[in-house]
Queue: 4 jobs
Job 1
Amino acid sequence: MVEAGSSDLSKLTLDRGTARGSGSRSSKRVRTITAVVIVLALLGTAFLWTRSRGGVEVTTALAQVSGGGAGSSTGITANGYVVARTQASVSSRITGRLDSLPVDVGTVLKKGEIIARLENSDFKAAVSQERANVQRSRAGLIDAIAVRDQLRRDLARVEELGAKDAASEQEVERIAAELSSAEARVELQQAQIEVDRSALALAQSNLDFTYIRAPFDGTILRKDAELGEVVAPVATGSGLTRGAVVTMADLETLEVEVDVNEAYIAQLENGQPAEIRLDAYPRDAYEGEIRQIVPTADRQRATVEVKVAFVDVDDRVLPEMAARVEFREPAGAAETGTAAPSRITVPSEAVRDDAGQAVVWLVRDGRLERRIVEAGPVSGGRREVLSGLSGGERLVVSADGELEDGARATEAE
């Protein structure tokens, strides 16, 4: 019994080496988890501290005040493109293959100068043939006139002899009939000459059609065809023919076409001064004036097209350049009382919709301030603010995070 009990108790003996290893691993695991939690806490604290210290990074712009005097800005701006008032895609009047194309992009031409020539050997041959027909008809007319004049003399002589009973009446009648026939042949030859002259003019016109000429003084902007290609008055769309040879424009007639919000059209008039700035040369301003307000509106965009002509233009201004136009008050507007009232405009991106309200975010002393405003229409990327701002405020245009009233803000460089 004792031996059996001793044997059972021996099974309850604790392996001190095994217990020591298990406890060590658990302790290491706890220490590792604790260290990770501490590091995450420190990182979170550092982020919150940095965020509260630096704030949201924002891009800002000023609320601008415009209008109120002759020559000052009306606050109405619009974006558009430079176009040539006189521009054309020049094509041929007949179908043919290009045999000569001496011009290139940038070539300056006078009205009537040759741009290109089609193959025209057959047209030249037709002109030569019709010219020969005219010469033949003229020779036939000379012969007919000679015969007629001779018969006139013969008839006069026979009538004189008949009066002396030296010639019969039948002889007189025969010569008179021959004279009538000769006079008809003269008239016929004269008519034939006119027919041949008309045919010659037609052949010459067809030959002239093989020469493509400049319709006005201008500059070649683009070559639409090359030597050997077939050109036609109207392109077939199959790729076998070209509808135009070149595109040219009179660069003296450059102007800017812009779309103005219809809410501001009543404040614009023909001849009103404007300032034009090109995206290609943003530091240079060009004087312009309204040439035409197109008498129709775009119902989809609620805009009206306005054409602004350059008062001063240089060789750097090219068609299709992007441009921004700022309209000025007309001269003498303040004296006549027609000057537009002062207006406050901001970048359209600065006005946000918040639950149906127009809201802007101001930056004051490094902190954000939310303000509800009454916003007007957009024109040229800027939006009018009817109330809520006095002008000169610095507004948030974009931000790298959420905007909160009272939060710190850092302006981006």
Job 2
Amino acid sequence: MSRIDELKGLMTGLEEDLVKFYDKGNKAAGTRARKQLQDLKKLSQEIRIEIQEKKNNG
């Protein structure tokens, strides 16, 4: 399941950057986290569409 691996990879990177931003005040990590959140949103939407198509087509 490559989609699961994609989600896990995004979440791992996001977690690291969020810790750096919130705990250490690293502004660049905040920028990276925002991009990763946008990528997560995009991937989530793609997965939702795939699930809906699979559900409707049997």
Job 3
Amino acid sequence: MSVKVRFAPSPTGWLHVGNVRAAIITWLFARKNGGHFLFRVDDTDAERSKPEYEEEIETALAWLHLNWDEKARQSDRWDRYNAVIEKLKQAGRIYACYESAEELALKRKTLLNRGLPPIYDRAGLNLSDEQKAKYEAEGRQPHWRFKLNHAPIEWNDHIRGPVKFEGEQMSDPVLIREDGRPLYHLCSVIDDLDFKITHVVRGEDHVSNTASHVQMFEAIIEAEGNGTIPDFAHLPLISDKEGGKLSKRLGSLSVRDLRENEKLEPMALVSLMSRLGTSDPIEAFCSIDPLIESFDFGKFSRGTPKFDTDELLRLNAKILHETPFEDVNVRLAGMGLQELTEEFWLSVRANIERLDDVKSWWEMAKGPVEPVIEAENTDFIMQAAAELPPAPWNEHTWSEWVGRLKTATGRKGKGLFMPLRQALTGMNHGPEMDKLLLLIGPDKAKERLQAYKKAA
């Protein structure tokens, strides 16, 4: 298989729009290339990982129609991680360190005060067996670091282009905690090798991690005699519309909130996130197929794209304006609008931003409405009520009715149409009245027009 990618969220919170952007782009790349999409749950953080978060991630992917070909969970793979760890220890690429958090903080502060980069001094490599035994007798448990080779680390990034780090300018990363559990970095690299991942797509905040990961890939491949380092594509992080950091603490930026509270259409989010930061225009798509076809990493810029919720709402509205009735009828029935017809949907959809907005138009047409009849229009509305055509009505009823009123009263334009709209709907805006009049029907129209008696 030429392309195999993974989306690997941690189930430690609600899925954030920044994370889901990586999922969408990774999925589009896989589908464009006829590839394989792995959904991998990175749940090595046992304290913070929760089943409800994992369930919500699955729900969000399904809602966005990002189907996966395979699912894996890191917590099922401890034996494999431990086996690789032993090989790396034997190869001398992982070494024990006994500094406390306070001691490491002091080392870091000292280096920074001297104007030096806070690179670990590899003191753990110089410990004798006696010194290690003494530390452990004091109750200290070691954490384990990966020994980086002091050599250039290079790769050709699909978005950033050529990337180069110098190994001697990097600090040996901690891979195993004091309690013996491996951290994200090592588990991720082992998984990417075992699942034969060909391309890793993630945020640019992982670029420095990738530099150390490249050497971890090399070390494991050397220890086991097989495997291939994947390609990398690091996406610029998105900002808010003012250019500030997009905080994960903002609940409104979780996919769960956009789906359940904002009631947005999934393709609005997919349309925005797939084009954000690219040379392609951001447009509203009702189908994901054109986005698959047009996908290309070469279209992504290195600039920081801005996430604007107002733009998301505009896309949402445009999608609904083009959505056929058969795509929403089940959802409308679930909202208690079982009697809503295709005619009604086609008449009002151009006036909604969210699907929930249909309820207000349904209530306007079918429920009690407080007509707006201004004093200066009372005589006009009285005459309009008298001229109201008898049933049955058709698509020409409105034009015939207002034509007669125009001739009889001399009114035209806004002075003719607005009082009728206000009296029939209680509002100053809405769908075209020729369609709306049919939805209201003769009985309710007559009842509302005769509210002039109360106004008088």
Job 4
Amino acid sequence: MSKFSEVRDLVMSLEGDFEKFYEKGNQAAGTRVRKGMQDLKNLSQDIRKEVQDKKNAE
């Protein structure tokens, strides 16, 4: 469950940058959003692999 907490914390940390980019047009915030989404993708892949490995081990 710690991985789920990491995902939740990452998404919540990006909220401010999403607002700055979409509502104020802040380009630097857009860069941070893209980086955060890439981190989210990588974390999601790690979780997916972990779940698959655990499922196959049983």
